[in-house]
Amino acid sequence: MKSPVERSTDDLRQPEHAFLTTPSGDELIDADLRYLRELPWSESSIGPISTWSRELLVLINLAMLSPQPQLFLLGPDSIIIYNTAYGRLLYDHHPLYLGRPIGMNEALISNAPAISRIVDRATTRAKPANENHVTFFFKNEDRLQETFLSATMVKLPEPLQGYHATTYDTTATAVQLRRKESLKAIMDTCASANDMTNFWDTMLQGISNEDGDISFALLYRAEVHTVYAAEADCQRHVVDGQNFTLHGKVGSEESAQPQQISLSSNEPYIRCMRESIRTGTPVLLSVKNGTLPKDWCKEARQRCYGDDALEAVIIPSIDAYGSEVHALLVMGISPRRPYDEDYSNWIHSVHQFFANSVMTIKLAEARAFDNNVKRVAAARAEQILAQQREAKLQAFSLKEAIEAKRQQENFIDVTSHEIRNPLGAVILSADSISVSLSQIQELVKQSVSAKLAIDPNSLTRLLEDITESVETITSCSLHQKRITDDILSLSKLDSNLIEICPSSIKLGSFMDNIVETFRVETGRANIAFGAKQDASIKFHDVDWIQADSGRIMQVMTNLLSNAIKFTATFDGAKSITVRVGASETKDVPIFNDLIMTKPLIDPNEKTNLFQGDIYLWFEVSDTGCGMSATERSKMFQRFSQASPKTYNKYGGSGLGLFISQKLVNLQGGNIGFNSETDQGTTFAFSICALRDKAPDVLTTRSTILPFKRASASDSLSMLLVEDNHVNQVVLAKQLRRAGYTVFTADDGQEAFDFLKSSRHWKGHGKSSDLPRVDFICMDIEMPIIDGMTCTKMIRKAQQDGDITNHIPIIAVTANARSEQLQAAIDVGMDDGISKPFRIDDLEKIIEKVVV
């Protein structure tokens, strides 16, 4: 029995069948003919090949050899026969569509209306029916690919049943036309943009209107800081080229993207962004290589046929290396179009329009700024001429007087706060010592009267309290001494009364003294602290020198005090290192990587103050919070600190570095620094010195501190809110000795949270297991939440019924002016007391406000 193939072959012996079995010379055509003749045609509606008419076979023969894509729709169910040229358009579907009804071919189903229109016109009209740029989607490598075909179809003459179509692949023409129209539409939409923000919006709107070749778009705009430009008397924008914010997008509303991105990140797509900025050209992102985030792929689900995007391009707002980047546009590639050379060229055109538009707007802004500069310059020139015709000197003097008065008032406020604040801890510590001495005296009396030995444990405890109080007084006094020294130094510097008084110094002992001076303070802050000598000291044989140790120590104190302040509260490893070195030239190597200051004093006017044969340099390095570029720009300015938050958090008068710079200049040296945010700070300065020999005699002195006694009071329960740890510990100890139950909080937020856990908060009842607060001592100047704000929160909670009773609040502050205390009462405090104070003074206030 013969197989179906053999039977089919036996049936194809007529001359018109020869083309099915005779090699054509083209392997692909021969393979398609073999596939065609081996199909089970007897099972189809048009029957075996042997039954086909000679005319149809001739047409099929001609079509199979044609280089132009052609197909036939035969029989009542429109069975498809197509040639090899048409098969190339079908990609993965070929040759599976041969011999199958059109209704079973998925790539053609979506185009059934267009095919029906062609068939209808071919049936009802004498002339061939045409259809241009019909969209087909054929699977190619597991993805559908968009293809545009134009077709001319004719109805086959009787007795043939069916249609014959000649097709043309017009994909390139159709896509090119669509892209041209898309770019024109984007350009037309953006034509009305007259500033940068408006341009971003119109660009996204233009992209949104065109759906064919942009599956989604994300526009990340560089963050812009506004600064005042005095030369133009207007605000100007400074672009942050490292941080970008999502301005808007075109894509799925259900998909959320990062609002901020930083180019310092090491994400794959961020690396591509950096490459795009570096080269000034578009860079391709792809799912295949992991550079296109999956969340970005979902943005295409409402555009371009709804498939997830597989590729996207990053388009920078520049077209050359080194330009200022204002935005990055991420455009999704159509998932049904290959990213080929034509696609890349079109993306290049979009990029050129995008970059040129941004440049045009920036040039317009620059011209406007230049016009402002010219206008301001002209106005200032007229003003100067007018002032010359008037009493310029008098006007200038008046302005100077007003500014001096403003600076003086600000300086008085700052220094008053800095002096009075530690004075409170000094007074309370002195009272503590007085109480401890009275108790020691009582122990002595009891031991004498009872002829018994003094209890060593009690005596040791009292002596430890005295020692701790003495250390507190010493620390606070040193702080006040630094402030007062700064004030005196500033006054003398302004009056040119500072004198440099060299004396013999052993360098090693001087460095040991620095370590010992700051050992306790750094130890309390858990800061690793040490000093070392650079190899240059030994190289230049520097042991004893002639220099003003007091002025050097004053500079070191200012630098180390700052280093401790800005390192103590910083998370992570804490360390401060002091180094000393020597150089025979003023340009010491340590300054190479530092930001140097301009001398405030002309050395030629003070040559007698720094004559020597060696330059000593000192370096102070810490691992603290560091400074930003803006903060670095304010260093060494009179009455100035890095930022307002510096004083609020760390205190200080803002004089230390300014004075240090002048003292260093007076000693013939320079001072510089370097700092990065969260990477610590380094200060270094040099002074001119003279080598010396060891003197014969060294002397030391000691100091004995006086002691006083404090009193006690009846028991009440209180909450002490104080951010200064020393003041908090000392005051709490004194109040407990006086009989009070004391709870503490470091800031307003902690205080408010404590009240929530007390018996005064609604729902807690009057449970004896919860803490009771009879009154609150509230500091005003605190980080996180200050005393004023915390008081408002407490009174608001009281009004709302969250706090069930009125809790008296006493303002405890170093702000001493009457209007400042009145402001505290105005926000809801019951009374106030200014630092420094004694327990007796506070108890009078407590008796007045606590009912």
From TrEMBL:
- Gene3D superfamilies of this UniProt entry? 1.10.287.130, 3.40.50.2300, Histidine kinase-like ATPase, C-terminal domain
Instruction: Recite the UniProt keywords alphabetically.
Output: Phosphoprotein
On this chain, the residues bearing 4-aspartylphosphate are D779
Does the keyword field hold ATP-binding? Answer: no
Q: Which InterPro entries does this entry report, sorted A to Z? A: 2C_system_His_kinase, CheY-like_superfamily, HATPase_C_sf, HATPase_dom, His_kinase_dom, HisK_dim/P_dom, HisK_dim/P_sf, Sig_transdc_His_kin-like_C
Query: Which Pfam families does UniProt cross-reference here?
Result: HATPase_c, HisKA, Response_reg
Entries under PANTHER family matching the protein: TWO-COMPONENT HISTIDINE KINASE (PTHR43719), TWO-COMPONENT SYSTEM RESPONSE REGULATOR (PTHR43719:SF30)
Q: What is this protein called?
A: Histidine kinase HHK15p
What are the top taxonomic ranks of the organism?
Eukaryota, Fungi, Dikarya, Ascomycota, Pezizomycotina
